[in-house]
Design brief:
binds zinc ion; 5 helices; two-stranded antiparallel sheet; 221 residues; single chain; alpha/beta; disordered N terminus
């Protein structure tokens, strides 16, 4: 199912790019040691949403205001780093930033980009032109992770016009590998691709352009 017409899974419910969020007390209380060593997960999350709003796109996260906003994103210190994709039209849809999720800013930006409606770059239909997926090296137990490498229908997806190995939404070379030291699950076909694949430093230039194409600037009135 696609929400939001031409904006796919994007947040248009409160106006394009306006996203109510609620931060759990537990998330707020987490220490700098549970963040990146000098800042708490809460501080890092707040910094990330300010960065997107001011420098990347017209995306405004605003505090959940109870009954007036039935749908909102629930930011919590979960067991892992994960987010539900786009506006799912439900209350308390999850954005979990647990252990090590706020260590690198790019990991936070990755999860927020899911919230904004974006899938993983390596699930694009044109991925085989840039990378090789080695499904035989992907974990099948205790959890079968092979579906994480499925190609996603274009009906569901907002993507940049070109495949972006440097996207913050691209998996790294050994994601969900049965042997992270010797078996790759994704290999870039060029050195240029391999050099940037899986980076979690910042949005790539193409990520920024893709976000801007979807949410502006120019910002909606
Ligand atoms: Zn992801």
């Amino acid at each position: 199912m696609v929400y939001g017409g031409t904006y796919g899974y994007g947040w248009i419910y409160y106006g394009l790019g306006r996203i109510p969020y609620y931060v759990t007390p537990d998330f707020k209380q987490r220490t700098a040691a549970e963040g990146n060593g000098s800042h708490t997960p809460y501080e890092i999350f707040m910094d990330a949403i300010a960065y997107i709003k001011n420098e990347v796109a017209c995306v405004d996260f605003f505090p959940f205001e109870g009954a007036t906003t039935p749908y909102y994103v629930l930011v919590d210190y979960g067991a892992s780093c994960q987010a539900e994709i786009g506006c799912r039209m439900k209350s308390g849809q999850k954005l979990d930033l647990g252990p090590y999720c706020t260590f690198k800013r790019g990991t936070v930006l990755h999860e927020i980009m899911h919230v904004l409606g974006f899938y993983h770059e390596h699930t694009r239909q044109d991925r085989d032109s840039e990378v090789t997926v080695h499904l035989e090296n992907v974990e099948t137990s205790p959890n079968d992770r092979r579906s994480n490498f499925d190609v996603v229908s274009t009906d569901f997806v907002d993507h940049s016009p070109v495949y972006d190995c440097g996207s913050v939404m691209h998996y790294t070379h050994n994601a969900y590998s049965t042997d992270k030291f010797s078996l790759d699950t994704i290999t870039g076909k060029t050195t240029a691709c391999r050099n940037v694949m899986g980076q979690r430093v910042d949005f790539s230039p193409i990520d920024k352009a893709t976000l801007a194409a979807k949410y502006g600037p120019p910002c909606p009135a």
